[in-house]
Amino acid sequence: MALIExxxxxxxxxxxDATNVALDxxxxxxxxxxxxxxxxxxxxxxxxxxxxIGLLDRPxxxxxxxxxxxxxxxxxxxxxxxxxxxxxxxxxxFNLLGRLTALENVGLPLLYRGISPGRxxxxxxxxxxxxxxxxxxxYYPYQLSGGQTQCVAIARALVNEPExxxxxxxxxxxxxxxxxxxxxxxxxxxxxxxxxxFVTHNPELTRxxxxxxxxxxxxxxxxxxxxxxxxxxxxxxxxxxxxxxxDDDVAGVSALMKIREQDEPxxxxxxxxxxxxxxxxKKITTKRGSER
Length: 292
What we know:
Order of helices and strands: EEEHEEHEHHHEHEEEHH
Shape: globular
CATH class of the largest domain: Alpha Beta
CATH superfamily of the largest domain: P-loop containing nucleotide triphosphate hydrolases
Distance between the termini: 115 Å
Radius of gyration: 32 Å
Number of domains: 2
Helix content: 40-55%
Low-confidence stretches: none
């Protein structure tokens, strides 16, 4: 069953000659339980697409259905409520509040729902245990490593038990080991039944996805279903293109031939000059001999 369905969705910014097309008639369907990786160069529309899916933005044109409900024309209040109850966000920059402990940061979404402090703390502690940070409950963000900070952000995204997790470059600020930890956590979230959509620039991280969507110029250029553990072939080939030296060699030979062709008249002129000089020398020598 389709959980996320975008139909010819476009997003425009600016007016008149300054109009910028961030999304250009994008159509995308994501079923429940999928793990989708979104790739593409900078400025291709990845973040705009994620904001659209996460109900942080609304389309300029087209329709968006979330779980069968047309949300593209909902009021801001209804969209906020649906976003709070159904979607968990993980950001590249973590977006934790520096004055709150890890436990308080994780419990923040429950505060907005009016959950009592006792229930809030119990739920937050359970989520921190799930991401392996049960002993860091009272640490502040500045006391945690980058990987631990992102794990806290993941726990915060999960505390409301949303059916959809949206992660915008969740490993962008992390080293290799921390990136692997975060992706393993996202993989566990997917395996537990959640729908996961994440943005990445690293084709190796598509191993954790069941599908890879490649974007360019605000459009979806390629949509590749795949098995867990495999790298998205199209995304990998675009990110690390192979270089065919044959064309370069042909071009180099052609350029060399052109240079030689250009040099040929010059050489011919030089040969003619040498013959003329030799003739003149010969005439002068012959003349001197006859005078003697």
